[in-house]
Amino acid sequence: MAKIVMKFGGAALASSEQIQEAARKAIAEKDKGLDVVVVVAAMGHTAKEMKMMVHQLTDDVSKRELDAVLSTGSQLSSALFAIALQEAGYEAVSLTGWQAGIHTDGMYRQARIDYIDISRMEEHFAQGQIVVIAGEQGIDEVHNITTLGKGGAETTAVALAIALEAERVDMYTNVDGVYTADPRYVPNAQKLQEISYDEMLELSNLGSHIIHPRAVELAKKFQMPVIIRSSLIESVGTLLKEEVEMEKNLVVRGVAFESDIIRLTVGYDAFSNASLADIFTVLAENRINVDIIVQAIIDGLKPTVSFSILKEEFAEALRVLEDSKLSLGFSFADFEIGLAKVSIIGSGMASNPGVAARMFDRLRRENIPVKMVSTSEIKVSVVVPQDDMIQAANALHDEFNLEQALYI
Amino acid sequence: MAKIVMKFGGAALASSEQIQEAARKAIAEKDKGLDVVVVVAAMGHTAKEMKMMVHQLTDDVSKRELDAVLSTGSQLSSALFAIALQEAGYEAVSLTGWQAGIHTDGMYRQARIDYIDISRMEEHFAQGQIVVIAGEQGIDEVHNITTLGKGGAETTAVALAIALEAERVDMYTNVDGVYTADPRYVPNAQKLQEISYDEMLELSNLGSHIIHPRAVELAKKFQMPVIIRSSLIESVGTLLKEEVEMEKNLVVRGVAFESDIIRLTVGYDAFSNASLADIFTVLAENRINVDIIVQAIIDGLKPTVSFSILKEEFAEALRVLEDSKLSLGFSFADFEIGLAKVSIIGSGMASNPGVAARMFDRLRRENIPVKMVSTSEIKVSVVVPQDDMIQAANALHDEFNLEQALYI
User: What EC number is given for this enzyme (chains A, B) (predicted)?
Assistant: First the structure.
């Protein structure tokens, strides 16, 4: 039988009424004759409340125990969701990560899925049951409970869809689809009917918090169709797939932006070809996400490298750099806070030279200083002062005529 | 290395401060060179809050899903407890029921432990870790999460102690030991230094809510020493063991009482020797605990049987009787609410005739009507009007000179 995976985040499950509403959506799919898997995150602010309880006990929690704490959140919501389905007259069963056969590596707080044993889920399908799975969690090789960290529930949903050979994943979010820019800040933003994995990946990586890039990457790798739709209203949503038909003259497909960026700069005591790799290796080992990297080697000055990170990883990044500065031969130089990143994205960009130049020119005319630049085949990102972020986003949305992106 | 199992209930874990205080008690035992297992219930009112969440979704929850909900409570508190131990500088690890190797039957809400695989716990001991276990839960043969129901955390603690061949179990409660009667209602009550399993079993069955009879039964079966002590103050507590030295002339060791008893009476349409067994078989199959049973066969009248149950099982008992009255050939006759049970307990009772007579005589002099009577080798219970319960308890405490029970 054809299968569908549906994912609901914490904001869509904050109350009994919301759980019942989400359950109705699952039932609608079941009534179409599909086998339904529901993946749920922890209800509302549960995770935050649990972190506060932990914080009352320690400032330095072991990651294993934090995972043991946090995993109870989605476990609870999965059981409540199953209860709501049963109350509506449908057969349902809740499964924790380990019961669902989700096996991960042992990296607490940000575990990666190794494999999924679908045998138990298949048994429940055979009994006509809707299967509700606690998202964001699994077990490692020695049966410790792990959580998947950011984007965990979405990644779980995509991974399950792949393992179960489902038709698609429906990601229920607080938006009704993917827009050319965040409509809360860019009034002319338009909803897209379809978007390619690559474009969505750039959008996700560039601060659009609709869906986590991990989930998009995984969907792309296995060509799993994903629909971004609203948990609040009925909507067709936006379909993520490999190839998207687009207007030839629309080179740029969207504008993304993200605040709370910090630029860190380190100076080399002695530069070698290995230095650059060493710094980013140690940051990667500590799972600090470095975004834009700019290296400057100017005669007469110490060589420096600047890179941008998220504000929330600032303290940890400083600690890591401090711990390894002697062994790696660099010294901490400078940091700048209060920055934001604004990006333009579009698969057609690679074959259209001059897009970046047009972007910089418009920002110059808007009197917005550009602090860092990063480009890929399908996007250009700039780091600008946070205060200029909204203005920059609207200006670029206008510059590339995105208000004409009539894909709906 | 010698091992100890310590059990903390929800009331002893209601706040961060209480968790830290309980953790200090565990550390004190670890510092004595013992391997320490801590068994915890869900924090404070967690279980009640979760049941309310479930109640908002349904009035008829599936037991499997209710267990999935409730198991998250002790899972959370076990992780928080481990975090408190780590913060104090001790190695600790939290384990869920299934991680701790606790295998149960598949009877949700009141599962029984089949066996415990101690291999994982032994690994943690070998690493010097204090092991904190989510009480009240396990997994069944097909890996569903089960909870053990009433007395679950205490039963888990005793079962773990037996499996691990621990020295003893320390049950931390809100009282500092076992008294000749509940000192809140019987001012002359005295604390006992020791009490036999059998006496404790009678006390537990007779409404003393210090420790659940399931746990006492299990401890008795494997001769596991148990200390009842206070989570609030330092105290030596009361030791449960097989043989207790007692004053020869103290035939009665304690007075127990319990309110909210209901007497149900059914009448037989046609009586046969099988009838009695049939009724109580069907009640037992539905896990309704029947306490005192009185059967009356009077010439010219329909035979009747009366039995007492707890108020909370009243609705379910009525349902069961209603469902089976046709097949079993009886009709519901009567019930009486607002009753209480008062009991006297003592191992020396069997060899001292006249104890029951002395009890009835005193109650008659106090003008307290006796509705039902039940006796065993070491106790006599009477059912009286609930309004007379405290008076009866104090009178019997006085009658058998328990204020002289100086065992402290």
Answer: 2.7.2.4
